[in-house]
Amino acid sequence: MRFKEAVAVVTGAGSGIGEATAKQLANEGAKVILVGRTKAKLDRVAAELNEFSAQCADVFAADVTKEEDVKNLAHYVKETYGDLHVLVNNAGGSTHNNITKLSIEDWDQVQNVNLRSVFLVSKFLGEVMVEGSSRNGIQDRAIVNVASLSGHKAGAHIPHYSAAKAAVINFTRALAYEFSQFGIRANSVSPGFVETPLTEQGLQNDRFVEAIKRSTALKRVGRPEEISSVICFAASKDASYMTGSDLLADGGWLIV
Ligand SMILES: NC(=O)c1ccc[n+]([C@@H]2O[C@H](COP(=O)([O-])OP(=O)(O)OC[C@H]3O[C@@H](n4cnc5c(N)ncnc54)[C@H](OP(=O)(O)O)[C@@H]3O)[C@@H](O)[C@H]2O)c1
């Protein structure tokens, strides 16, 4: 029960890594606010969680690339819960193309969902955390940004995503430095290939799956729970002396 009495926000909580993270935080005692664009997906996860433990999950539909939506989310969290202890910036995604074929719209969209969103949510919800810290005293508070293996090693046909995720890792360091005075830690987690709706299409291609296995020391794709456990570690007191770091959970891709 590492998150007993903690209030947590998870973006992109309606599926994949975000869903697994929300479930683990709630299982360990947190009150979790699930954020995403599709309310039906969030409601499904919240219903599962609330069946397990009444009122442990709440839903707020928002597009985290939109300033107004993020401001409304921050206002809701402040008015409803008064404080915020854990923030997981997990929403993200990508399209695939070569640099010369990539449209400017796709470039912008991928920067927005992976990078601008992390800035916007950290800015407005970070303010709620800072206020909570000055009002209720410095307790362990944490932000975890979901980056990617692609932020370390640019992936094929995802130049926009690789650039955005590398920026997330460095933005996290800036965030960690600025927020350290308020007792708020910030770290990023960089997953390798994980089975989620984001990778579903690619993972239906046997040759692609074989290529992933060949390139991964552990010879397999990861499960969402194997990433959420690392995110929850970074968010917990177990990582109380860790800030400005990136935790790579890539099954050993970079060592092959
Ligand atoms: N799966 C992998 O192999 C892998 C590897 C490295 C990094 N990652 C990163 O892990 C994170 C989670 O991805 P995943 O694999 O779990 O994929 P996923 O299942 O597609 O989850 C992404 C979630 O983000 C939400 N989302 C997308 N755009 C949003 C927006 N503008 N505002 C609010 N929510 C938004 C989506 O819900 P809505 O569409 O309903 O909004 C979705 O539930 C992403 O940052 C991804 O880049 C994944």
Structure overview:
- This protein is of the alpha/beta class.
- The chain contains seven helices and seven strands.
- The protein has a seven-stranded parallel sheet, with helices on both faces.
- Strand 5, helix 5 and strand 6 form a beta-alpha-beta unit.
- The termini are far apart.
- The mean pLDDT is 97.
- The structure holds NADP nicotinamide-adenine-dinucleotide phosphate (NAP).
- The site of NADP nicotinamide-adenine-dinucleotide phosphate (NAP) has 29 residues, from helix 1.
Q: Could you say which structural class the secondary elements and strand pairing correspond to? A: alpha/beta
Radius of gyration: 17 Å
Helices and strands, in N-to-C order? EHEHEHEHEHEHHE
What topology, given as strand order, has the largest sheet?
Answer: 3-2-1-4-5-6-7
Distance between the termini: 36 Å
Small molecules (ligands, ions, cofactors) in the structure: NADP nicotinamide-adenine-dinucleotide phosphate
Q: Which regions contain 5 or more consecutive residues with pLDDT less than 50?
A: none
Features:
256 residues; alpha/beta; 7 helices; binds NADP nicotinamide-adenine-dinucleotide phosphate
SSE order and pairing:
Layout: E1 7-11, H1 16-27, E2 31-36, H2 39-52, E3 57-61, H3 67-81, E4 86-89, H4 104-136, E5 141-146, H5 159-179, E6 184-191, H6 206-215, H7 224-235, E7 246-249
Parallel strand pairs: 1-2, 1-4, 2-3, 4-5, 5-6, 6-7
Bound molecules: NADP nicotinamide-adenine-dinucleotide phosphate.
